[in-house]
Design goal:
Strand order of the largest sheet: 3-6-7-8-9
Shape: globular
Order of helices and strands: EHHEHHHEEHEEEHHEEHEEHHEE
Oligomer: single chain
Distance between the termini: 16 Å
Largest sheet: 5 strands, mixed
Helix content: 40-55%
Structural class: alpha/beta
Number of helices: 11
Number of strands: 13
């Protein structure tokens, strides 16, 4: 029987940065005690937008969901800047004003992690061994927009949206949304990314942030059969590397210890005199954050 190797976009990204990040984040669920406010803002925006669409574009329900999310106790702590509850509520209100009359209807709410299984050909098994690959995605919503079915992903950023869209044109996550949804839920046309930009400049003199810039863009993406063939090769290749990383005990990638004048957050663990995972789980500066999303397998290639 084939051994199952489970991967996702974020797992592959961590693997290619440093295999130990897979161990720390995906297996031990170990994260820096001070979390990213950008990611917290993005999660809050996700919560608001999901509530907005699940409740027939009810902006009050969306704001209530955001307030509940923001006030919920967290294991990590966060240093707020211009990305805070007030700016989050303002962004939702602006989105509602701009898009409330768009022809969009919720046609699916997966709720859980969705898995599609890739079975290797005999030729691929010669290269990679007898493995099968589970590719995992978390789908926010499936919307019918003007009669077409789209997997919708909400993304927040501080950069210009046209630049963001061009960077993600071949993102394995967005391709995986379409291909996994097509295998699991039927007639899906593609992936629709709902981008949201929130940006503010910080004064070097005062250290304070200026006025925020808020923008939105809906960007449809339809991936071809060729895209699927390339995506499949990429996922299988990285699943093979994941298996080898596990077999090798998650070796470090020293090229990722320092990037862009900053050190990897996990460097204190790697530099600890003794490799002791029990110690790492209680080490000062780190916390264990459980994964709250359940998994369910939906489709086999």
């Amino acid at each position: 029987m084939s051994s199952i190797v489970r991967v996702s976009h974020s797992t592959i990204r961590n693997l290619n940065s440093c295999p130990r990040k897979v161990l720390f984040e995906k297996i031990l669920r170990l994260f820096p005690a001070v979390g990213s406010i950008a990611m917290r803002y993005g999660s809050g925006y996700h919560a608001g937008m999901e509530a907005y669409y699940k409740n027939n574009k009810d902006i009050i329900k969306a704001m209530e969901a955001v307030v509940e999310f923001w006030k919920k106790p967290t294991i990590q702590t966060f240093n707020e800047d211009y990305r805070n509850l007030e700016s989050l509520l303002t962004s939702l209100s602006l989105y509602h004003e701009q898009y409330q009359h768009d022809n969009e209807v919720v046609s699916g709410i997966p709720e859980k992690k969705t898995i599609t299984q890739i079975l290797l050909t005999d030729e691929e098994k010669v290269l990679y061994g007898d493995i099968a690959v589970d590719f995992v995605v978390v789908i926010d919503l499936i919307l019918e927009v003007d009669g077409m079915q789209w997997v919708v992903d909400f993304k927040t950023t501080s950069v210009e949206l046209s630049y963001m869209a061009s960077r993600m044109r071949k993102m394995v996550q967005l391709m995986g949304y379409q291909f996994t949804a097509q295998a699991s839920f039927g007639s899906i046309n593609g992936t629709m990314v709902y981008y949201h930009q929130l940006k503010a400049s910080k004064s070097r003199k005062t250290g304070l942030y200026g006025e925020t810039k808020t923008d939105f863009m809906k960007f449809p993406m339809i991936f071809s059969n060729k895209d699927y063939a390339d995506w499949r090769k990429y996922v299988v290749w990285n699943a093979f590397k994941m298996q080898k990383a596990v077999d090798a005990g998650f070796p470090p990638n020293f090229n990722s210890c320092y990037e862009f004048n900053s050190a990897c957050a996990y460097l204190p663990l790697c530099d600890y005199p003794k490799w002791d995972m029990d110690k790492f789980l209680v080490m000062e500066g780190f916390v264990v954050v459980p994964d709250e999303r359940e998994e369910v397998s939906n489709a086999t290639e």
